[in-house]
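Need tokens for this chain, all 136 residues.
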Amino acid sequence: MPRPKPDRSRESLDDLADNQSSGQSGTLGSATSLDSQREEGSRFQVEYPASTRVYAYKYVPDDEDEFDSGVGNLCVRFIKQGNRKREYVYPNVPYHTYLNFHSPGTSKGKFINSTLNGIGYHEAKSKDMPYFSDFG
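Here are the structure tokens for all 136 residues:
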């Protein structure tokens, strides 16, 4: 099955540029564009990065109302290699760490190895499968 193309919307880049020119930081600009991507009361959308290691990922905040100051689960589906399991959950990921991971130009595989593996992770279990239900 072909992999969906990542959404590289011009609006997100324009929002970031507008926020930077108005004196707001790039992180705030990223938070604003990420917030506009999610529907009211829903989880963040599945992202399909241009990566040789990561097929898709999604951030699921522990508290939808205060996602920008809390932590959440980063759910990652890797590109399958051999018999290795492909779905992993990185729990207790601070939102600002997710923003750094989500940032365009960040190597997803290198970020996982250098940062997220230090936070901790586990293979997705049956209780985690609802997080992956909208992955293509």
